[in-house]
Amino acid sequence: MITGAILIGSEERTSANTFDAVNPATGAAIGPPFAEAGANDVTDACALAAAAFPVFRDLAPADRAAFLERIADAIAAIGDPLIDRATAETGLPRARIEGERGRTIGQLRLFAQVVREGAWMDVTIDPALPDRAPLPRPDLRRVHVGVGPVAVFGASNFPLAFSVAGGDTASAFAAGCPVVVKGHPAHPGTTDLVARAIRQAVVDSGLPEGVFSCLPGTTNDLGGALVADPRIKAVGFTGSRGGGLALVRIANSRPEPIPVYAEMSSINPVILFPAAAAARGAELGRAYVASLTQGAGQFCTNPGLVIALAGSDLDAFEASAASALREAAAQPMLTPGIHRNFEQGVDALAGHPAVRVVARGPVGDGINQAQGALFATDADAFAADPALGHEVFGSSSIVVRAADMDAVAALVTGLEGQLTATLLFDEADEPLVAPLIPLLAEKAGRVLANGWPTGVEVSHAMVHGGPFPATSDGRSTSVGALAIERFLRPVCYQNIPDRLLPPALRDANPYAVARRVDGVMQPA
Amino acid sequence: MITGAILIGSEERTSANTFDAVNPATGAAIGPPFAEAGANDVTDACALAAAAFPVFRDLAPADRAAFLERIADAIAAIGDPLIDRATAETGLPRARIEGERGRTIGQLRLFAQVVREGAWMDVTIDPALPDRAPLPRPDLRRVHVGVGPVAVFGASNFPLAFSVAGGDTASAFAAGCPVVVKGHPAHPGTTDLVARAIRQAVVDSGLPEGVFSCLPGTTNDLGGALVADPRIKAVGFTGSRGGGLALVRIANSRPEPIPVYAEMSSINPVILFPAAAAARGAELGRAYVASLTQGAGQFCTNPGLVIALAGSDLDAFEASAASALREAAAQPMLTPGIHRNFEQGVDALAGHPAVRVVARGPVGDGINQAQGALFATDADAFAADPALGHEVFGSSSIVVRAADMDAVAALVTGLEGQLTATLLFDEADEPLVAPLIPLLAEKAGRVLANGWPTGVEVSHAMVHGGPFPATSDGRSTSVGALAIERFLRPVCYQNIPDRLLPPALRDANPYAVARRVDGVMQPA
């Protein structure tokens, strides 16, 4: 079933160079060998994608929605082999992978709804005013269309929801853009299974083969060649800051620069307010560690920073968290490289003169185990060394003690852009909370109360994005219905006869979409 | 009335370095001397803008709309002195400047309507589902907010509509972003008058002074320092490709990169189809030259390229255009530098071995006169040398002869990104037109039929943008209601108590905006 081939449209290719899938919990290779895609494969996949674009872009919304639903069905139809494979390749628990499959399928179905409803087209019509003085107004009609073929980079930490058929691919397809995936080498078998499901949906939908290709590989050169290909018009990426910025640099130095939507780096500040700390500090400490250690802490929205007022209530929170961490079972990380980076990050914090080690988790049996780490420092030290605010990917977090709310506000103001900011407070805290909300909204794409940032709903209102360096484009989200906008551009048609217009703009409104006519919204 | 000062919020500053306004038609300096803003002025203006941002961002839509309308009123109230000054500084005809004033005022009023209606906030609410299995859904509410202070670079060719209070400033204000303008040195007196009008509106609206500052100056260093200032969060620019790309480079190399919306370079292809050429070639030739020479050709949407099938009908079109050009009066260009670049561009085309000079316009009396230029070449030569497809800013255009419609399609496919693409056709041409429309829509932000690209309506449906290098961000427009989106970002609030939410997201909907609730649009 898994052949390890390169998928260029409907073609399967092998390569002299191969690489292995590895079970990170055991270090064992899992067959088959996977072909390394090369420069020719990139070129051919992009040429097919460009050829498919005009057809795919102009598909009726109902047809594109049906394609998304066929992908969802095809992924569901893989059944247990997909769960088994993803579990083996990532070391993540089975229940987590099953949940992620549900999320991935639900995401595809959400985008099918979005495509059908058609608000993304933002159809806007300014009818001609032939008698206007001093000059007549022409007939002007605007619609949003796909930008062209999109390169998607699978993420290591969500082998389904942020990978081959994840949010980037689903939203690019929804926008009418063919996709060329660079598969993440940490889960090539999962990649293969999902890629084949998409390919089957392409066939079943009667679409041009170039709508989807998948390039397995391990090298930066492969990803670089994909971003540099002139037929690629946008990039979706979830991963490290270094990786994201490398792709941004390549995209910016093309003869025609293109947008890169890289979701990169966030420490997701949590602010614990005094009344909440007093009333339920110990309980919050335990919940904090549960969020921190979930999935070995390998979440973009992992709570890597807690800010609170120094005092006995914070001591209790910290003691409770320390105790919970010491009991949190170690888990294997996704790859040896991720584990190595985690250990280096933790060692650097542990060796920092201004940082105190509050607790470490159990060492764990076997290889690549994430040994959780909880640190503490004070506001001045945190502000003095930007390195203390950098993400350590995995279950590592730091508690920063502030003397008063002014110091908390100063810390928030000094933060880099974030995916999330969390407020833990009771009603008595609200006078302190209110002025911080606008500050946090400037720093983060999502501001949440009395919860934990891990757990990103796939819905209409979600924002999984934020100012740099949380992402490379703070005007966007990579999760939720709004993600489609990343892959759209507006086109205006002036005085084009009705029969020559794209159907969405014709008077008869064959797609039955809501339209803004002469400035006034008209429901579908 | 015009003092030549640097305006930092409510403060007026002078400088030891000054520069003069010059009447390009005569070369005469027009007083007073204008202060050159420097690095300190940039720093102080940006600090004030950052301080003003939280207040201005959170203003009720009705209040921000009233501010925009006060600016419109204040510009209108300047009266004839504004028209006189802009005419003297640009060499543009009085009627053109009067029309541009009307456009500028209308643009501000359009954005006031846009702000009041509130669709730009895209308020989206996914109510909590506490009983959902396996996990409850939190309450999620999303709104779009301003990105922060915006740097706006005035353009030389529209001293009102694309300058101090032009579309970039109007849309940034509409989004809730303070603006720091780098005034264009070609019209510093016009800049001064309009800047004071905005400043008066800031005072009359009771807004923090930092909502607006204006930095006159002549150096690239000034603009570079403005884009590099960490408090600036986005840039609006209209001008040359070199200038725009320089700002993009500075923005990309900041510790926190920011978006630059640079509208830069376009030759605005016009495709003349056979039946139209046969039926009305001579008439179209005259209309072409009228569009080409308007305002000395100093329009971003100037028709710099005509593509048509070789033959006697094209000969007639060309002969008619040549005759019209020889009779089109020369006009002064905006600055000696622009005139020099125009002459160099025309000389290069005239000396190109594969290019034929079809006609030149009259030489003109006085300095800085644009002598119109019409060239011809064939499809192979045009395709062989990319230099033939570069913009020559001014009344220069080239007619490219193609052997058949396949050659036309190949030429279109080879074009860079454009602001506009124009189709001149009769009903009999439609079978040839239909397949070209999608090709052109991939290349240009606006596709128009049987008109001329000069003339950009300020309305809801307009797109004045296009793929690179027409702009640095092909997902946007710098004219029309959609321009506001350039300066917005989404923020999601999760489980925040109603009383702590921004008003736009509260259950009571105090701004009475349309909202998407649980995926369904609810009218205002």
Offer a concise description of the structure.
The structure is a homodimer of 524-residue chains. Chain A is an alpha/beta fold and 524 residues long. Chain A has helices spanning 39-57, 61-78, 80-90, 94-117, 167-175, 188-204, 220-228, 241-252, 274-293, 312-327, 336-350, 379-384, 405-414, 430-433, 436-443; strands at 6-8, 11-13, 18-22, 29-35, 124-126, 140-146, 150-153, 179-182, 212-215, 234-238, 260-263, 269-272, 305-309, 331-332, 356-360, 369-370, 373-378, 396-402, 418-424, 444-449, 488-494, 515-517, 520-522.
Can you tell me about this structure?
Two copies of one chain form a homodimer. Chain A has 524 residues and is of the alpha/beta class. Helices cover 38% and strands 20% of the residues of chain A. The first copy, chain A, has helices at 39-57, 61-78, 80-90, 94-117, 167-175, 188-204, 220-228, 241-252, 274-293, 312-327, 336-350, 379-384, 405-414, 430-433, 436-443; strands at 6-8, 11-13, 18-22, 29-35, 124-126, 140-146, 150-153, 179-182, 212-215, 234-238, 260-263, 269-272, 305-309, 331-332, 356-360, 369-370, 373-378, 396-402, 418-424, 444-449, 488-494, 515-517, 520-522. Chain A has a seven-stranded mixed sheet with strand order 15-17-18-13-12-19-20, with helices on both faces. A five-stranded mixed sheet of chain A has the order 21-6-5-22-23, with no helix packed on it. In chain A, β3 and β4 form a beta hairpin. In chain A, α2 (61-78) crosses α6 (188-204). The radius of gyration of chain A is 25 Å and the shape is globular. The interface between A and B is large, with 81 and 80 residues.
